[in-house]
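Form 12-C: Joint structure prediction
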Amino acid sequence: MSEKELRERTSSGNKKLDSMMDGGPLRGSVTLVIGAPGTGKTCVGLEFIARGITELDEPGLIVTFEHFPKKLLRDANSLGLDLEEMERKGMLRILFTSPEIFFEQAQAPGGLLDTMVQELGAKRILIDSISHLERLASDPVRLREIAFTFINALLRHGLTAIVTQEDRDITGDMVAAQYGISYLVDTVIVLRYVELDSKVSRALLILKQRASAHDKAIREFNITGKGLSIGDPFTDREGVLSGAPRKKEIEAFMEVFGKKSKSAVKGEVD
Ligand SMILES: Nc1ncnc2c1ncn2[C@@H]1O[C@H](COP(=O)(O)OP(=O)(O)OP(=O)(O)O)[C@@H](O)[C@H]1O
Ligand SMILES: [Mg+2]
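Section 2 - Result
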């Protein structure tokens, strides 16, 4: 991949996310999408692959260690994405395998990854999820090496990639250390559950994006029959990433004491 190509931006498959990402992910970059079960990691990945095909004509490869291809097709369908049709047209391949086999094959020149990328002319890849690589070793140093080798294998092919990772905490304070491979990837997108007024909502944040002026806001998002719908930042809340945000003091005050006290806050007399 040329220097010029590496400075080009491509699409995440979601226009709002692209605008948050300073125009979109850089070509040949790796984005980690991390979140608790059901937060929408696979949805983000499926949009990335499917819209890459339908809107940019970029063939895509999905490697899954956990979802049977049939389940993936069904999940994609519920987002309005017809993966079967894309497979039929030769623009998509879904590989359902074990982390052991894939890791071995990803390193080997002429291995499964090389072959599939070449045959398909793949430009994008989704790995769902990289958490399964943890099965390959128990030693943290060895695990780091494995993650490093793995990410490099993706970069070697010049693929723009999304890898998903499971966050064990459903809610709770964000601890940077738990984002195991964050330092290896270009972009980290965090998905969280947030309890708001006795209802569970979802929040999305771009934690980092190399070489980009990315959006820093924590935004509410929904998963719909048309894919991800990203909304406004949680401006009147604090502690959103803790999962149980508090209203900012002033907002809470206004809610309880209303308009009359607004002037009192300013020191005015009614
Ligand atoms: N068409 C739809 N309309 C509304 N919500 C949907 C729709 N399709 C999926 N969802 C929501 O998306 C959730 C699953 O999202 P997804 O599979 O991407 O999560 P995940 O983070 O990959 O989970 P896991 O860790 O279990 O793989 C469902 O639980 C459901 O709430
Ligand atoms: Mg998933």
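Section 3 - Comments
DSSP finds nine helices and eleven strands in the chain. The first strand starts at residue 30 and ends at 35.
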